[in-house]
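Hey all, quick one. A colleague (J.T.) asked me to put the heme C job into the tracker so the inputs and the C-alpha cells live in one place instead of scattered across chat threads. No bug as far as I know, just bookkeeping. Sequence used:
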Amino acid sequence: MSIKQSGCPACHTSAGIAGAGGRVGPPLTGVGGRSYLAGRISNTPEHMIRWLLDPQSVDSLTAMPATGLTELEARDVAAYLYRPPVTEMLTQPIRHRAAALGGGQRST
Ligand code: HEC
C-alpha cells in the first residue's frame, strides 16, 4: 500500500508523488518541519501515526477522514513523510550516505 493508493493525493499535494494535485488538505511536502499537525498536536512520530490512523480522535471536526491504513502502513507513511526534502538530499549527499551505511544518528 503506497501513499498514492491510499487516496492521500486526492486531498494533498506532495512533491515526488505524481498526480498529487489535491487542494483540500495542506501540502505534505515538508510536513516534518512543521511544529504542529493539523494545528492541534505537536509533530512527533507517535502523533503522526495517531493522526493517520484516526484524525477524528485528534480533532472531531477535521475534514480529513480516517485513512484506513493499518498501524504498520501508517508507520511507513509517517517515515516517508518525515524524509528529508529532495533538495536537501541532493545538496547533502555525504551526510545521508553516511546515515544509510548504518550507525547513522540523525543530527536533526
Ligand atoms: C478527504 C481529503 C483527505 C484525504 C483523503 C487525506 N487527507 Fe490528510 N488532511 C486533510 C485535511 C482537510 C487536513 C487538515 C486537517 C485539519 O487541520 O484539521 C489534513 C491534514 C493532514 C496532515 C497534517 C498536516 C499538517 O501540516 O497539519 C497530514 C500529515 C495528512 N493529512 C496526511 C495524510 C495522508 C498520509 C493521507 C493518505 C493516507 C491523507 N492525509 C488523506 C484531508 C485529507
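Adding what we noticed when we looked at it: The mean pLDDT is 81. The helical segments are 45-53, 55-58, 71-81, 86-91, 93-100.
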